[in-house]
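FORM 12-B: Structure-to-Sequence Request
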C-alpha cells in the first residue's frame, strides 16, 4: 500500500472514529454512569466489532447491496428502530444508588453486534473499503489492510469519549443531574440519526 494512501486512510479512520456519533455518545454515557473500567468491554467491542464489520463489508456485503438495493432500505429501518430503543434505554438509565440493582454497561458482544445497526459504522466501512482499499493485490489484501487500520486507530479515538464521560461524572453527583445528562445523551443519539433519515 502506498504511503500517501495509508496516511489518508489513517486520517479518515481517526476523524470518523473520534467525531460524535452513536458509539461515542453511548461511550460517554457509559463512562459517566459506570466508570472507565466497566466501560472497557464496550470500547473493545466497538473497535474489534467494527474491524470485523469492515472485513465482511469488503468481502461480501458491497456485492449484495449492488445486486439487491432493497437490503439497504431494510438495514436503515432496522437501524433507526434499534437506535431509538437504545436512546430510550440511555434516557432511563438507573441513577447511582440503583446501579447495583439493575444498571449494566454494554458487554463486548453487545457493542460488537451494535455496529451492524449503527448507520455511522456502515458509512465508515463502506467509504473506507470503496475509497482506500488497495485493489492491486486482491480484494482480501485491501480489505484486511483497511480493517487493521481501523482496529488500531479506533480504540484510542473512542477511549477519549469514555474518559470524558468519567470526568463529567464528577459533576453528576445527584440523581437529578445524572438524569438530565442521560436524557441529553439520548436526545443527541436520536439527533445523530439525521444523516440516515435525510437521505
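FORM 12-B RESPONSE
SEQUENCE OUT:
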Amino acid at each position: 500500500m502506498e504511503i500517501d494512501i495509508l496516511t489518508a486512510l489513517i486520517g479518515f479512520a481517526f476523524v470518523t472514529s473520534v467525531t460524535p456519533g452513536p458509539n461515542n455518545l453511548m461511550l460517554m454515557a457509559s463512562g459517566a454512569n459506570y466508570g472507565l473500567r466497566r466501560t472497557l468491554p464496550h470500547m473493545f467491542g466497538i473497535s474489534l466489532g467494527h474491524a470485523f464489520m469492515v472485513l465482511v463489508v469488503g468481502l461480501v456485503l458491497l456485492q449484495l447491496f449492488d445486486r439487491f438495493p432493497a437490503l439497504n432500505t431494510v438495514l436503515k429501518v432496522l437501524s433507526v428502530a434499534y437506535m431509538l430503543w437504545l436512546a430510550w434505554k440511555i434516557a432511563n438509565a438507573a441513577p447511582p444508588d440503583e446501579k447495583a440493582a439493575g444498571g449494566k454497561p454494554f458487554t463486548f458482544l453487545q457493542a460488537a453486534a451494535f455496529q451492524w445497526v449503527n448507520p455511522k459504522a456502515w458509512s465508515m466501512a463502506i467509504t473506507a473499503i470503496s475509497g482506500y482499499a488497495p485493489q492491486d493485490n486482491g480484494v482480501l489484501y485491501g480489505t484486511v489492510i483497511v480493517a487493521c487500520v481501523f482496529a488500531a486507530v479506533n480504540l484510542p479515538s473512542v477511549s477519549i469519549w469514555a474518559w470524558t464521560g468519567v470526568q463529567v461524572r464528577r459533576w453528576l453527583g445527584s440523581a437529578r443531574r445524572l438524569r438530565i445528562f442521560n436524557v441529553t445523551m439520548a436526545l443527541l443519539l436520536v439527533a445523530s440519526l439525521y444523516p440516515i433519515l435525510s437521505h
